[in-house]
Amino acid sequence: MSEPGEEQVDADQLAEAEGLSGLYLFLAGLFRKPPTRDLMAMLAGEGSGQDVRETIGELVGEELAAALESAARQALGDVDGLRRDFEQLLSIPQAAYLAPYESAYRGQPAARTRGHGLLMGPHAREVAAQYRLAGLALSGEPNELPDHISLELEFIARCAEMEARNLRAGQQGSPEAAGWRLLRRRFLEQHVRAWVPRLCEEMERRASTAFYRAAARVVAGVLALEGDALPATDAPLDRVEPSGQEIQDGPSRAPAPIE
User: Fold this and answer.
1) Is residue 252 included in any domain, yes or no?
2) Where in 102-146 does DSSP place strands (E)?
3) Is 76 a domain residue?
């Protein structure tokens, strides 16, 4: 029981942060590695994927969640075909390749990049600086460029995880939790939502499997709904601390990395 006058943690806000953390980690994984039969079985209801399934249903509706589940069940019969689709969309620079980097979608198009922007452009440097500022350890490949879609989605997940961690440790209205929530929303608006919906449109058009078409619709739906609540500050990301305050002097006070 809490002490008199002590605020209780907002259970709905905590559940939302925990749910978004798990959901964004799941979405990041879809773009990081070829899918496995175990993953398809989990999404098809044969394993322990109910939490992700419920979060998708709550955010974007049962129709999309059911479509992803149905596509995963269908993919169980041709996991090799699903892996080929992953490689063609996200790994091998050929006809269907999506170039899953923010710089490719927001940079100046160049002929030698087949109409995409040059990689490791200013947007990649911006997100790399934000990762360092926040002090979060991401789990991408050592040589992966910082603006790969999987890393940007994982960063959103880690911000939600830190929000939940601070909510559990503190009280309702925790400035640290509010800061991580602000950082997540600002990153969504200034980076992820500025290009990933276009990638999802292309994925839905180019994918040869029902699973990746459904996944594209789920990601686009999550981003559309999650980004509706904009933060109240106009401070750029490199001037916002995880405490939610604009930086006045000196470098940011970064939190400990997530293990």
Assistant:
1) no
2) none
3) yes
